[in-house]
Write a structure and sequence with these properties.
Radius of gyration: 20 Å
Shape: elongated
Oligomer: single chain
Number of domains: 2
Structural class: alpha+beta
Strand order of the largest sheet: 2-1-8-3
Distance between the termini: 6 Å
Number of strands: 8
C-alpha cells in the first residue's frame, strides 16, 4: 500500500492590539496545491518513506498544540500517522544542495541508448531483475542487510543499476510540484512573518 500526504498551510492572525492573542488560522488545504506521491520529497522534508537517507527537516513533531480549529477537525477525520509541521522560516533557510546522509537504498535504473548514453528509467528497492544483476535476495534487501556503495553499478544487458546519493534539490526541485506550496507560504510570510506561517501535514497508508 502506498503512502499519501494531507495537510494545511496555517497563518497567524494579525494582532488587534498590543499584547492581543494571535491565533493560528487555516489558510489553504494542501490538496489544492500539492497532490503528488513523492517518497523522495516525503523523506527529505518529513522523514516518511525515507529510502534516500536524508536528514529530515521536520520529522515526528506531531500536530501543534495550538492548531487551528479547522485543521484539528479535518485531521481528526483521518487514520493518520507521522503528523508534523514546518515553518516558512525553516523552509526559507534550507540548503537545497545538502546531500543525503547516505546512499539511496533504491538502485537507480538506466537503459543504455544506441549512442552509448544512459536514459533514466526509475528506482528499484527490489525486483527480479535487480536480484539477477546484484545477487542480493529480496529478504536481504527488505531487511536492510544490503548496503550499496556510492557509484556502485550492476549491468544486466542494456540496463544499468547504479547506487547514488541524492541532494535535497533532487527530491524537491525548485521548479517542481512543491513550488506552489512554497509560493503561498512565502506570500503569507511577507505579511505575517516567516515564523507565523507553517505547513501542518500528516500521512495515511
Amino acid at each position: 500500500m502506498g503512502t499519501d500526504i494531507s495537510g494545511f498551510i496555517e497563518c497567524r492572525a494579525p494582532a488587534l492590539g498590543p499584547g492581543a492573542p494571535r491565533p493560528w488560522r487555516a489558510a489553504i488545504n494542501l490538496d489544492l496545491l500539492y497532490d503528488v506521491r513523492s517518497y523522495d520529497a516525503f523523506g527529505c522534508l518529513f522523514g516518511v518513506r525515507n529510502y534516500a537517507s536524508f536528514r529530515p527537516l521536520a520529522a515526528g513533531r506531531g500536530l501543534p498544540d495550538d492548531l487551528s480549529a479547522t485543521v484539528r477537525e479535518v485531521a481528526g477525520r483521518w487514520e493518520r500517522h507521522d503528523a508534523t509541521w514546518i515553518s516558512w522560516a525553516e523552509v526559507a533557510a534550507v540548503d537545497w544542495d545538502e546531500p543525503a546522509e547516505g546512499v539511496d537504498r533504491r538502485l537507480h535504473e538506466y537503459r543504455r541508448q544506441p549512442d552509448g548514453g544512459l536514459e533514466f528509467v526509475g528506482k528499484s528497492l527490489w525486483g527480479p531483475r535487480l536480484t539477477e544483476a546484484t545477487g542480493a535476495s529480496r529478504e536481504e534487501v527488505m531487511a536492510g542487510r544490503v548496503r550499496w556503495g556510492e557509484g556502485q553499478e550492476f549491468v544486466l544487458g542494456d540496463v544499468v543499476f547504479r547506487a547514488e546519493v541524492l541532494r535535497r534539490r533532487d527530491a524537491v526541485p525548485p521548479d517542481g510540484d512543491w513550488k506552489y506550496v512554497w509560493r503561498v507560504m512565502e506570500t503569507l510570510a511577507e505579511r505575517a512573518g516567516p515564523e507565523d506561517v507553517r505547513l501542518v501535514v500528516w500521512f495515511d497508508s
